[in-house]
Design brief:
By secondary structure, the protein is α+β, with helices and mostly antiparallel strands.
Length: about 325
């Protein structure tokens, strides 16, 4: 038995790997989801990634092997108790990235099995951390052994805000919570239709608005800056958080919680004063970064034989009737 243990230790210590992912099981929904995600990611990258069990940190020879052989380390804590963080701190071990799931997902520790949606979200969160570290080490996603299709050679994009939204709205009515959407207001849609905002364009872009006052409506693109990492990992939602509506993919909705939280809206231009545009009907909150502004041309954006999902048609019927149903971004 002793010879077997020595041989096992030798085999493990001779196995190089670029990245070690620790996860705290926790016996809860987020812990189970994290464990499944780590196994899935390891299966996609068996040559570069190993999964570490947190109790192994307490074993002296294993801790030495971990710190010597793993180029990078990620620690995933299932909940706010932060058992993993406390354990590695007590052993003097460092990690390159740390993720605490319940804070990101804005949920509580629940001793139950995770939903499929939670598993997908947790996988995307951990996958993003793994890809970021491997990328820094010169390892592109194109080398992954996973079956999922990914964009391999697309260049990185850098967006710089061209201005900022100014109004009296400090918090969004629709937020991402626990892997879905949560709606916190029942009058938002009616208020949004009459809401007046100012689009303050950066003074360095002098002249960029010239001629815009000849248009009655504008297409405004802005960044939903309060959508956190957990919200950006959601792939399916109930529109507006309404459980009476079908679960749909993010790209089948207009939810601000999306991988790149770009929002677009047609607004009425009320007036221009220098580098400030006063508009009506914008759904953005105060401080939202502006990405772009275009004149709205109904001929250019027109489409024939347009159909929408039944649930979306239902929502706008409720709006037209002045219903007190939840009627914010969909």
């Amino acid at each position: 038995m002793q010879e077997h243990n020595v041989q096992a230790q030798s085999e493990i210590s001779d196995t190089p790997y670029k990245l070690l992912v620790f996860t705290c099981y926790g016996g809860c929904a987020t812990g189970v989801a994290a464990s499944k995600a780590c196994i899935r990611i390891w299966e996609e990258n068996p040559a570069d990634i190993k999964i570490g069990c947190l109790p192994a940190v307490k074993v002296p020879w294993k801790l030495k092997e971990i710190t010597r052989k793993s180029d990078r380390r990620i620690l995933i804590d299932a909940c706010g108790v932060q058992c993993g963080a406390k354990l590695i701190a007590s052993e003097g071990m460092t990690v390159d990235r740390y993720v605490e799931l319940t804070s990101l997902l804005k949920t509580q520790k629940e001793k139950t099995l995770p939903s499929k949606d939670m598993e997908d979200i947790v996988y995307r969160i951990i996958r993003r951390e793994v890809d970021a570290l491997l990328s820094k080490m010169g390892k592109s996603e194109a080398d992954s052994a996973g079956k999922e299709q990914r964009i391999h050679d697309a260049p990185d994009m850098l967006l710089k805000p061209v201005g900022v939204v100014k109004n009296e709205v400090n918090q969004p009515d629709l937020i991402a919570r626990s892997g879905d959407l949560d709606y916190r207001s029942r009058q938002g849609q009616q208020n949004r239709r009459t809401r007046v905002s100012e689009l303050v364009i950066d003074s360095s872009l002098d002249g960029i608005l010239d001629g815009i006052e000849n248009f009655s409506h504008l297409l405004v693109l802005y960044w939903a800056h309060l959508v956190d990492e957990g919200g950006r990992s959601i792939v399916r939602v109930h529109p507006m958080g309404r459980k009476d509506l079908p679960l749909v993919g993010i790209y089948a909705s207009c939810s601000p919680a999306r991988p790149n939280p770009v929002c677009a809206m047609v607004v009425r231009l009320l007036e221009r004063k220098g580098n400030i545009l006063k508009v009506q009907g914008l759904d953005a909150i105060d401080g939202s970064p502006l990405i772009d502004i275009k004149p709205f041309n109904p001929g250019y954006y027109a489409a024939e034989n347009v159909t929408v999902a039944d649930w979306m048609a239902q929502i706008y019927q409720e709006i037209d009737r002045g219903s007190d149903q939840k009627t914010e971004p969909i």
